[in-house]
């Protein structure tokens, strides 16, 4: 399904449905297509908002986790969103974490899936030679438990990105920023109810990373999904949506009267 891309000032985003805002932040090689099943499921009960993160538009000085967080903060203020359920995958989860730590006042809950912020395996020690399509295909397949999820369309998208010298420089800058910006000591400050959804076969942020987030974030719950890699909302959307739906429903239930 094609969604209209809206424009407000410098921000481009998708917004579907009405209700409490569910804001989705994609990862380093992420695209709006990563969230299509999630948007379709939740737009009937929530205002689902997907800002297009300026991974390649920021100047090199601000091409960092902090630079992306500032962009998200300005976007949330520009749209005047409140009571937000903030969801991030991979680098998007890292940006969500930094945002909650800096600006907790508009955030109702936090949802992380395959998030960086503690530990992640990057593209590897050697960056791809430009033009090496087979290398890019194999690396894209590593995102998933089922390599067939790395469709030609998806591999082509990644290939186009890494074939641009400037985009490669910015990807390396973002990846290095994510490694430097370790949040281990700050996670105990997060007060929002937090849902952690991890693929049991995630090789980029392996299962122990999910367990460590669960240990460090006070009000958090952790769910593992079998036969699933780094992007559960893409690879096992039905299971992911079921877990998220249950979490959001529980948040909105009135507290049991003692």
Largest sheet: 8 strands, mixed
The counted number of beta strands is: 8
User: How do the SSEs run, as a string of H and E?
Assistant: EEEHEHEHEHHHEHEHH
- Poorly predicted runs are none
In the CATH hierarchy, the architecture is 3-Layer(aba) Sandwich
Please give the count of helices: 9
Average of the residue pLDDT scores: 91
Verbal overview:
Residues 21-235 form the AB hydrolase-1 domain. This is Alpha/beta hydrolase. With 258 residues, the chain is α/β, with parallel strands linked by helices. It has one domain (6-120, 182-251): Alpha/Beta hydrolase fold, catalytic domain (Rossmann fold), CATH 3.40.50. It is built from 9 helices and 8 strands. It has helices spanning 36-42, 65-79, 91-102, 133-141, 152-162, 165-180, 207-216, 232-235, 237-251; strands at 6-8, 11-16, 21-25, 47-51, 84-89, 107-113, 194-199, 220-225. Strands 1-2-4-3-5-6-7-8 form an 8-stranded mixed beta sheet, with helices on both faces. Helix 1 crosses helix 9 (237-251), helix 2 packs across helix 3 (91-102) and helix 4 crosses helix 5. It starts with 5 loop residues before the first strand and ends in a 7-residue tail after the last helix. The model has no long low-confidence stretch (mean pLDDT 91).
Short précis:
The protein is an alpha/beta fold and 258 residues long. The chain has helices spanning 36-42, 65-79, 91-102, 133-141, 152-162, 165-180, 207-216, 232-235, 237-251; strands at 6-8, 11-16, 21-25, 47-51, 84-89, 107-113, 194-199, 220-225. The termini are far apart.
């Amino acid at each position: 399904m094609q969604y209209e891309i809206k424009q407000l000032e410098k921000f481009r985003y998708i917004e579907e449905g009405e209700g409490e805002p569910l804001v989705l932040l994609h990862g380093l090689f992420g695209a709006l297509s990563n969230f299509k099943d999630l948007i379709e499921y939740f737009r009937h009960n929530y205002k689902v908002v997907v800002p297009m993160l300026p991974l390649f538009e920021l100047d090199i000085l601000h091409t960092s986790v902090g630079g992306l967080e500032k962009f998200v903060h300005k976007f949330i203020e520009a749209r005047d969103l409140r009571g937000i359920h903030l969801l991030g995958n991979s680098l998007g989860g890292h940006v969500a974490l930094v945002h909650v730590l800096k600006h907790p006042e508009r955030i109702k809950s936090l949802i992380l899936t395959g998030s960086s912020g503690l530990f992640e395996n990057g593209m590897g020690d050697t960056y791809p030679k430009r033009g090496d399509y087979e290398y890019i295909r194999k690396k894209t397949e590593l995102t998933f438990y089922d390599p067939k999820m790395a469709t030609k369309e998806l591999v082509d998208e990644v290939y186009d990105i890494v074939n641009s010298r400037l985009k490669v420089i910015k990807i390396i800058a973002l990846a290095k920023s994510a490694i430097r910006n370790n949040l281990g000591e700050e996670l105990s400050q997060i007060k929002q109810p937090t849902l952690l959804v991890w693929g049991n076969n995630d090789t980029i942020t392996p299962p122990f990373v999910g367990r460590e987030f669960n240990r460090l974030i006070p009000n958090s719950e952790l769910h593992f999904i079998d036969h699933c890699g780094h992007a559960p909302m893409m690879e096992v959307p039905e299971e992911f949506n079921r877990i998220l739906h249950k979490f959001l429903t529980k948040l909105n239930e009135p507290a049991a009267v003692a």
